[in-house]
Amino acid sequence: MAIQTRLVDYEDAGVVLEGLIAWDDAVEEPRPGILVSHAWAGRGEFEDQKARQLAELGYVGFALDLYGKGKRGSSTEENAALMQPFLDDRGMLQKRLLGSLNTMRTQPEVDPAKAAAIGFCFGGLCVLDIARTGEDLAGVVSFHGLFGSPGNTAGQQITAKVLALHGWDDPMATPDSVLALAEELTSAGADWQLHAYGNTMHAFTNPDANDPGFGTVYSKQADNRSWAAMCNFLAELFE
Questions:
Q1: CATH code for the domain defined by 3-238
Q2: Structural domain boundaries of the chain?
Q3: Of these four, 91, 119, 159, 206, which has the most CB atoms within 10 Å of its CB?
């Protein structure tokens, strides 16, 4: 057994994107593909490692790229500048996400009928938006994601199962926004769960997060609990 990876170039609206796929070469048949949606800095080692960890669990991990090949932020200002156009145009964001999902589905290691998505911070918002489009995939998992509704999916039924893993003290996703998400998902007919971790802030899965003033603090306990919850969720989807 060995975890293999390769880079995958794909394109949207004339922008060349570069994702990373990870799989276990001991498994010959196609298996479920799990999209990994990145935080606001762009696809980096954190997301690539999550793809490899998913491969260790027996899935195919695909770390997507929303910004463009080699385009990454290295400061709060750069990250915000990269993310903001997609927050301003959620239709553009959804199109690029669905293109990434379709790219994953075309990879030979992936069973195209079995797909899910996970995402972190901005990526958590992204996977919720995939579900909001009504896309036919098994489920999505949002880790400390942003919950704001896109405004262009009202009335759309959500067929994907939804798991939101949330730090209750996250200043970027307040209790009011949690309740709004619950109402939205219920109205859309979704099969949804929300796990809220007490005394936990934003970015709780990122060991480099240590800025209480900004609201981003790593929590090993919440990190471990949320990953276990994701594992159980994916096992339910693909048992």
A1: 3.40.50.1820
A2: 3-238
A3: 119
